[in-house]
Each structure stands twice: as C-alpha cells, then as structure tokens.
Amino acid sequence: MGEEICGETQVRRADAGRIQRQENLELLKALAIVAMVLCHPVIRLGIRHAGYQQAFPFFFGDVVLGVYLGVAHAFMFAMGVGITYSRRSAPGQLMGRGLRIFLLGYALNFCRYGVYALVEGIISGAFEAETLEALFGPDILQFAGLALIATGVFEKMKLRAGHLLGIGLFLSAVGAALPFVDTGNYALNLLAGHLVYTTWDTSCFPFLHWYLFVAAGMLFGAILHKVQDKDRFYRRLMLASGGIMAAYLAATAVFGALFLCRARNYYALSPLEAAGLMSIDLFLLSTFHFGAQRVDAAKLRVFWEMSRNVTPIYCIHWCILGGIDSVCSYLLEITFPWPAIYGIGLVLLVLSFYLARLWKRRSSG
User: Are 102 and 156 in contact (CB under 8 A)?
Assistant: First the structure.
C-alpha cells in the first residue's frame, strides 16, 4: 500500500544483478511527508484565528510548507518517476491501481470528515452542501487515481514519455486559460472539479492543471534510466534547477506567492508556476543525491520507511486530524494557539508513522 501513490522508486542494475535504491527521490518524498503533515493542521485548525491570513504561523504552514517545500507536486513528480521504473506499469495494471486509489480517496473522505457531516445531518435533520463536499470532494488521491488511469490509456496507445509531457503541457495551458468554471450546481461543480478548477470548496488538484507533474516525472525517469554518470548528471541539474529556482523565488518575493496562477490559487496552477515548483523539486533531488552519499545509510532508515509508507501515513494523519477538527474546532469551538497547532502536527507525524508501520506489518504478515 505504501507504494500505491508514488510507485516503485528502485532501479534494477543489470551489471550487479541487484536493486539500487533511488535514495534522493525517497528523501524528497520523506521531506514532502513531513511538510505535508505539519501544514495540514495549520490550514484546518489555524483558520479559527481571527485575521489568520496575516499571521506568520499560518503563512509558514500554508505557503512555505504547503506549497514550496515539495508536498503535492513532489509526490506527483515522484509518482511519474515511479511509473517509469515500476515492474507493474502495464496499461491494465496502471488503470487497475488508479481505480483503487481513486476509490480510496472517497473512503478517506468518509473517514476524515464525511462521517461527522452525516451524523450532524442526521441529528439536525438538515444536510448542507458541505456534506457533499465532505463525502465527494476531490483531493490528491482522486487526482492520483485519474492520473494513473489516464497514463494507462496513454501507454495502451503506445505513447512515449516525451509525448506525455507534451500532453501535460497542453492540458496545463488549457486549464490556465480557462476561467474558473461554476455550473451553478454544487454537485456538478464537485464532478467537474475533478478535471478543471471550479470553486474553492468543490475543486482540488484538478486533472488538467496537475497531470504535468506526473508526465514530467515519467520523462525524468526515462532520462535518468539512461544516464551512466549520475554525479555529473545531478551536478548539472543542480546548477540549472538552482538558477531557475533562484529566479522564481526572487520573483515570488517581489510579486507575491503563486503570482503565476489565476487568482493566486495553488490548485489552478499554470505551466510557468508548475515549472517554478518543479525547479525546487529538482534542486532538492540533486542536493539529496550528493547528501545521501555522505550520510551513513543506517541513519536514513526512518526516511526510507516513511517514503515507502506514504499512502498509509497520508490516510492515517488525515483521519486523526479530521476527528480533531470536527470535534474540537467545529463542535466545541476550540481555538488552538499556534504552538499547539504545530505541536499537533508533530504528534500526528510520529503517530501516523508508527501506525503505518503497524499497518504494514499486519497486512504483510
């Protein structure tokens, strides 16, 4: 289950007859997991603070951790690389795995917020539109499922990684050019929100805007597979991506976060914003390539395990956070101070890590 989202990130070395871990990619995923688990309590519990938009703790969690430090775009890029190296990348296997992840997204919806919304509706006798959002709102798992299904279809058509990147760029450009779609019907907005950005509460990681990261990861994996001198490759990549990243972050400091997105909306990414975010991923990937060579592998075991268990960690931390948000914040109207919110994030990180380990042991045993 841990490899469901990002796929296998190991390379078979024919000359040695063994498997070589893509250590830098796993470190990138582990960093994204840490940032993700810390940022989610901020964006769910922090909004109880008056004027939270201007508070630095919210900005740090929502923008720095939630946007720029890997997180969703790093996961989707890693998924693309994993597809390239996976031994389960036949079209039927990709589509089957995509369907499972897509349905898992709705199971997670029910467990983290849907069950509480249903209970409230049964008690009050009134089911609000938010109940539909809690049960059927699209999120990263739904996108990942759709991306795998689409990739399976493209593989069936014998398209190569370069073709998929072209498709990803085209879809991203179309999504960026389209105005936000509001059908006037909440349920239709939820349905359309899987593909294109609709409204803030009915769309998240729409396919048109986000498939570019998966396609770019697949092309990167295809190129990396042919590289003989990895050190030289990553040294050049670090210089190129570092230059782009520096220019992107400098422009961001001048014009503001997500200035290349329509309405500065993270989910409605443009191709240029996606390129800026990927420059961060590639720079970190290059840095981790050289950093992993200088650190004893035993000291990185926790990060390898975290990377392998990304899916259960994601689901577990959201289920716990959904309960805290629904009961403490919504029902009891508790406003947690910022240190407590970040403390909850740290507890969630540790707890979800160990529960994911327990889940894997029981499911594999």
Answer: no
Smallest Cα–Cα separation from 39: which of 307, 326, 317, 330? Answer: 317
pLDDT digits (tens, 9 = 90+) for 3-16: 556 655 544 333 33
Please tell me the predicted confidence (pLDDT) of residue 19.
Answer: 36
**Strand ranges for the chain from DSSP E:** 10-13, 18-21
pLDDT digits (tens, 9 = 90+) for 174-204: 999 999 999 999 999 999 999 999 999 999 9
- pTM, two decimals, is 0.93
Residue 207 binned pLDDT confidence (cut-offs 50, 70, 90): very high
The two tokens of residue 92 are 């039927």
Question: How many CA atoms are closer than 13 Å to the CA of 280, on its beta-carbon side?
Answer: 23
∠ CA(113), CA(117), CA(123), 5° rounding? Answer: 150
Report the distance separating Cα 153 and Cα 135, nearest Å: 28
Q: Say whether 34 sits in a helix, a strand or coil.
A: helix
- Whole-angstrom CA distances from 259 to 54, 71, 274, 322 are 17, 19, 12, 30
In angstroms, the CA 335 to CA 147 distance is: 37
Which ranges of 46-160 would DSSP assign to H, the alpha helix? 56-59, 71-85, 91-109, 115-124, 129-136, 140-156
